[in-house]
Protein 1
Amino acid sequence: MARAFLIQLITFTILLTVQSSPSTSPLLRPPHGGSRQSMLLPLFLSPPNPRRHLQRSDPQTHPNARMGLYDDLLRNGYYTTRLWIGTPPQMFALIVDTGSTVTYVPCSTCEQCGRHQDPKFEPELSSTYQPLQCNLDCNCDSEKVHCVYDRQYAEMSSSSGVLAEDVLSFGNLSDLQPQRAVFGCENQETGDLYSQRADGIMGLGRGDLSIVDQLVEKGLINDSFSLCYGGMDIGGGAMVLGGISPPIDMVFTQSDPVRSPYYNVDLKEIHVAGKPLMLNPIVFDGRHGTVLDSGTTYAYFPEPVFVAFKDAIMKELNSLQKTHGPDPNFNDICFSGAGSDVSELSKTFPVVDMVFGNGQKLSLSPENYLFRHSKVRGAYCLGIFQNGKDPTTLLGGIIVRNTLVMYDREHSKIGFWKTNCSELWERLQISGAPPQMPSAPDREPQPTIAPTQVPDHVLPGELQLNK
Ligand SMILES: *[C@@H]1O[C@H](CO)[C@@H](O)[C@H](O)[C@H]1NC(C)=O
Ligand SMILES: *[C@@H]1O[C@H](CO)[C@@H](O)[C@H](O)[C@H]1NC(C)=O
Ligand SMILES: *[C@@H]1O[C@H](CO)[C@@H](O)[C@H](O)[C@H]1NC(C)=O
């Protein structure tokens, strides 16, 4: 294994730190497998990427890539999108993961890859494929010919292979034209990455190899992307690479890129049924802070938060029967007698609010903290667990079902907007239709664009986000 350059030295250090920690849980990923499969945040972080300021001639006309999401949290443990690589394009189903950076698919040369839902990528069938030649900015293979990548995740899951450049296409909903970008052609995978049905990972985290960073770096899209995960029993949803105009009532929180390389939020309080949990806000700032990770399935609270949360929920649920979880290996907290209609759940289960440092509030529906019991009809279990002894608060996909989450990297903030993600395009068209004037007084002058310049499927309105 090549262990030559800077990145691997740094990542190696992080791995050692992790292993010597007394915590029972690996980096961010709690030990919670089985039916509650979740994706790992990588143990190997690339060094923080200094934000480069781009010279853009005409930022207003930046297209974005609109892409559908597929799969489902409970059934698959993840959401995927479709990405096409090569000329002619070969299609892949990739887990969308804000907790990692490299995008990779199994390569036809792979020596150890599992069976996934699509055929492996065949470089020889693509006229535009080019492996990256070994250079000072990358890790090279042992023959010093090509650039390689190697990602280790918790629970012994890993992926390694060659870094290559080829044309990526974003599907027929997208007005972003196909672009050359660097991705990983896998030669080995282990653990969940080997056994999962999805072909690979689409990395949306912060770092040079992230698809988002690459498209932003070339001045192709605004420094922002959005994910909208479909609801309980429905799954799917939508995503956008590039800027969108935020709906007026979107809730924002600061996201500090210096605090941690993950997308963090400035969580200060949690309310259950309108009542604040009695907690010092610093409990949400332990270790990595409060991290939003689209590639993790459920949510994990530090011990004091979890205990207070669980107690508050139980107090609100006197009318329901406590019942065993679907899997005897886990001590799940489940309730029966709530009925099987998801839209009725809010009649039984309390609203949970997350309050951010700026006072703005994200209200969670029951489907954002419950999963359906797979064996008992009308029963639901808490989809929030204790994060072992790790003081990190980890918010996975369950928290943002039927919520448009805008990762506005340019302004270091994250926006949330409750919506039906199965109908996102229609809903954005309506709510984003001009004239749309947020009431914030410090808003910059509104750029205007001639309607004729905008293709049909571009999101309307070009709002300047408030800093
Ligand atoms: C767009 O692509 C999808 C496959 O990803 C296909 O099912 C659909 O029919 C296409 N739509 C159009 C309008 O070409
Ligand atoms: C893209 O970024 C530019 C420059 O910051 C901004 O003026 C424009 O409103 C953004 N567009 C969208 C759709 O976010
Ligand atoms: C969201 O939209 C889908 C598709 O139109 C629909 O089937 C579903 O019932 C809607 N969900 C809610 C919670 O309204």
Protein 2
Amino acid sequence: MGISPVIWQFLVKWLTASALFPREASTIAPYMDALYVFLVGMTITGLLLVGAILVTFSIRYRKSVHPVATQVEGSTLLEATWTIIPLAIFLITFVWGALLYFRIYNPPVNSMNIYIVGKQWMWKAEHPGGQHEINALHVPTGQPVQLTMISQDVFHSFSIPEFRIKREVIPGRYSTVWFQATTPGDYHLFCTQYCGTKHSAMIGTITALSPDDYKKWTQGSTSGTSLAQNGERLFASMGCNSCHSGNAAARGPNLAGVYGSRLQLTNGSQVLVNEAYLRDSILNPSQHVTAGYAPIMPTYQGQISEDGLIDLIEYLKTLNTNYRVQQTLTTSQSDQAAPPASGMVKP
Ligand code: HEC
Ligand SMILES: [Cu+2]
């Protein structure tokens, strides 16, 4: 930035105080605003330049002074100047914008993950610890937070103006965005994609808390079971463990450690197993069959909600060893929650 920090701070204070600008409350906000001010500055400079030339020429070459027009031949220097300067400005803007884009869309590796499910007309937030919120989201300051978002119906868009973030929330596909809140406080959450009658009511409050307060909040508002624990129950009650028992003779692959691994598919390609892939392999198993297995897994399309899928995914992510599957298996057999499916291998 060419602007000195003092002028910059003054500018931001003035813009915020005059209610022209939302507060800057995330680490990315000053970077976004710098680019924005640069763009506005360039636009105003261009406007003033053209305006000044227009007025000067109208006075200088008015009819009473210049009754007969003089023919002017081209000037290479002039033409090169007015091509190269704007080109340079556009390229600077492009590179600047691209760098910022990569920064905004690549979450730091140490970020915590929260799920967001959008639907007509509300936002649901699901924390890994099992805290559920509606039209509200509590986050700690000083810690990168990644949101993994999906819509249950139409397109929505998740926007927190004070954090300068906004991302489409799409049916059938996870999209992500991240931020790091800097100042404790309450901030607006908007849906910025027209999504039906009560679109304007699809709003909420983001509460940024200091790390200590956040810890208190998570302890005070837990539902008792984490997402992974809910997923574990689903895994048993939906009969997933009849094929994914982890036994050598099981009909489905062992799912322990599958998250984050690279799978070889029957069609010869390789995939990285992330949240999106897990979701898709539950809904469209025949689309990408793991090498060495028959395409016998049934589709669960329409049988499980987005929340249920999130639970299952969080459960699968915890399966670093086969221990948990075996536990689930024994529990579900002992309380008869899921009668063993035909063809299930007896231990
Ligand atoms: C009838 C047996 C069967 C059932 C029931 C079943 N699966 Fe599968 N599953 C398979 C087989 C076989 C594969 C490997 C072939 C493929 O990718 O379709 C597989 C693949 C997968 C994969 C891809 C990862 C990998 O290692 O291939 C995931 C994730 C998965 N299943 C999760 C589930 C979940 C969650 C459930 C319950 C909602 C479930 N499965 C129910 C048989 C089954
Ligand atoms: Cu919406």
